[in-house]
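Good morning,

Attaching, inline, the backbone tokens for the sequence recovery test we're adding to the shared suite. The designed sequence is right after.
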């Protein structure tokens, strides 16, 4: 696995982000064009509407297939980082920390995690600022 740092930590899944999304967009545009033409020509209106509705359903399914695992992953990240903080300090994470801050903090090494967590809560650091403040990056190769 390649080394992760601030510049290389974003995960892109090419099949989903490039292929599937482009195919969905292209098919959605095509069904809209077909529906408009059908309405103008007054032919196959019912078919074009059904195809458009089916395409909307497919887009919704594709979005939900991405969002549901991410939501489960978010819950796991919060629990993991809370546990990690507890193991390192004997306390729970500051409830003032937003979820986005906790996600950014997960990349901090155990050595800098407690202090950076306190600083993030006190100074209300943005997630990007937290990531840039990390000296020893802790890679996460298992995310969705």
């Amino acid at each position: 696995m390649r080394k992760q740092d601030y510049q290389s930590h974003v995960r892109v899944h090419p099949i989903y982000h490039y292929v599937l999304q482009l195919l969905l967009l292209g098919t959605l545009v095509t069904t809209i064009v077909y529906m408009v033409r059908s309405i103008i020509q007054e032919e196959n209106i019912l078919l074009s509407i059904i195809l458009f509705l089916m395409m909307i359903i497919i887009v919704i399914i594709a979005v939900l297939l991405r969002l549901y695992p991410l939501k489960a992953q978010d819950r796991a990240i919060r629990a993991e980082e809370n546990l990690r903080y507890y193991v390192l300090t004997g306390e729970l994470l500051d409830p003032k920390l937003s979820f986005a801050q906790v996600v950014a903090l997960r990349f901090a090494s155990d050595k800098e995690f407690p202090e950076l967590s306190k600083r993030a809560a006190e100074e209300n650091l943005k997630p990007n600022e937290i990531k840039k403040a990390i000296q020893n990056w802790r890679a996460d190769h298992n995310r969705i």
